[in-house]
Amino acid sequence: MPALQKLVDEYKGKNVLFLGFSTDKATELKPAFFQQHPFDFKIIPNAREIAASFYFLGYPTTYIVDQDQIIRNTWVGGNVLSKLDAYYRAKSAIDDLLSTTEK
After folding, report:
1. d(CA 56, CA 52)
2. What's the rounded Cα separation, in Å, for the pair 9 and 47?
3. Which of 3, 16, 93, 97 could form a disulfide with 11 if both were Cys (CB 3.0 to 4.6 A apart)?
4. Which residues are 9's β-sheet partners?
């Protein structure tokens, strides 16, 4: 998630929205964790129905969705990909989408 926060910081003020979905209820989210690891994006709790509408193989799963609500890229992991690989993969996908919408 630090890689995601780095992307959030880099794309502030651009047409990019970052959301985190948790299947935990809001009361089950750990405030101490978020105090130690602050995120500047919305975490949506109790998102089981949203999660069920996506095909996913595990947690965390990252989706890059364009302005037409089409999934353009997806991958699973923190453990499979190094933190830098996840950052660069997401950055590349976001930059590609932004360059096509800015034309």
Report:
1. 8
2. 24
3. 16
4. none
Structural contact between residues 42 and 20, judged by C-beta atoms closer than 8 angstroms: yes
pLDDT at 92: 93
Residue owning tokens 């800015």: 102
d(CA 75, CA 58): 9
93: amino acid identity, one letter: A
Q: What is the dihedral of CA 65, 67, 68, 72, to 10 degrees?
A: -30
Q: Give me the residue label for tokens 């209820």.
A: 25
Is 94:64 a contact under the CB 8 Å cutoff?
yes
Separation between Cα atoms, residue 103 and residue 63, nearest integer Å: 23
User: What is the topology classification, in CATH, of domain 2-97?
Assistant: Glutaredoxin (3.40.30)
pTM of the predicted model, to two decimals? 0.75
How many angstroms separate the CA atoms of 9 and 20, rounded?
15
